Every structure is written in structure tokens, then in C-alpha cells.
Amino acid sequence: MTDRPRNRIVVFRLSQEEYRALKEACDRHGARNISDFTRSEVLGFLNSATRPDRLNHRFAALEGEIPGLKASIAQINRLLEGEANAESA
What we know:
mainly alpha; elongated
């Protein structure tokens, strides 16, 4: 943690989907709140020493999204199978 006071405010807008994704990432990482999580991630990105560090960080974030995408695909497949079964009946 820093000894310097945090006296600057940064504001940005998110869509509902972006906010949901940010909240889920915050929960997955066990962060105290969205503000702490976002500050930590942004400063970590800025303080990454090398391009490979940044790429590793980005790849890790993308890997974190894969389970949700797989679940969405499985749900879509179930819906499509249900519609196909209904049409053949």
C-alpha cells in the first residue's frame, strides 16, 4: 500500500455488460470492492516491466473468461437441441 494520499478521482462509464464482467472479475479475484480491484489492475498493467508481462496479464484475463464462454455455448446448444427435438416431434 502507498503512504501517499489518494486525492485524485478517475471516472469512466461502462455498459451493463461491461459492469457485470468487471464485477465478476472482482469477485473471482476476491477483491474488497470494484474500486480497489480496478485500481490494482490498472496500476499493475502500467507498472508491468516488459511487454511479455503485459501479454501474460492479458492472456490470464482472457483465460478467466473462457469458463463463462463455455457455459454460454453449452446453454445455446441445449436450447438448439430442445428446439430441434420439438420440431421433430
